[in-house]
Amino acid sequence: MAHWLLTVNGKPHEVEAESDMPLLWVLRDLLGLTGTKFSCGEGACGACNVHLDGELIPSCTVSISAASSRKIVTIEGLSSDASHPVQRAWLDEQVSQCGYCQPGQIMAAAALLEKNPEPGDSDIDRVMARTLCRCGSYPRIRKAIHRAAAQGKKA
After folding, report:
1. Structure pTM?
2. How far is CA 136 from CA 8, 30, 64, 112, in A?
3. Rounded distance, CA 20 to CA 60, Å?
4. Are 103 and 45 contained in the same domain?
5. What b-and-e string marks burial along 36-60, b requiring 16 or more CB atoms within 10 Å of the CB?
6. Which residues contact residue 88 at a Cβ distance below 8 angstroms, ignoring those fewer than 6 apart?
7. CA atoms of 11 and 71, how far apart (whole Å)
8. Do residue 52 and residue 68 come from a single domain?
9. Range of the structural domain that residue 38 is part of
10. In the structure, what pLDDT confidence band is assigned to residue 107 with cuts at 50, 70 and 90?
11. Domain end call among 57, 77, 97
């Protein structure tokens, strides 16, 4: 096993793990950041989405060796008090049903708005299609993203 230096949510962490350990399990099992969810394990559903150097990635497909020395942001790092515009919009629009996919959905929406602060419906649909919701709350997700974008304009 090797020692790895990770920057997660702005804080340095040193962990010991095999080089091929998925970032998802490093976050959940070694760092105790359980907001990032496991679902498919092959990058197809988006439940484990995090930001890696500002890019949206499914953390189940990235090894610790590929994430080492890079900036990682999880749902816990978006804001500690649900004050991020996307988190506020999610609450205002009552997006969550079962809630399981919501950390991945929120991370995808935040990444979208970081790159495109005024997305249209087709932009939202294209980006959010990579993150699955079994409950089908897609109309509320789209509405929440528009709300967060409007709040960003006011800030």
Report:
1. 0.95
2. 31, 32, 32, 20
3. 11
4. no
5. bbebeeebebbbbbbbbeeebbbbb
6. 82, 148, 151
7. 9
8. yes
9. 2-77
10. very high
11. 77
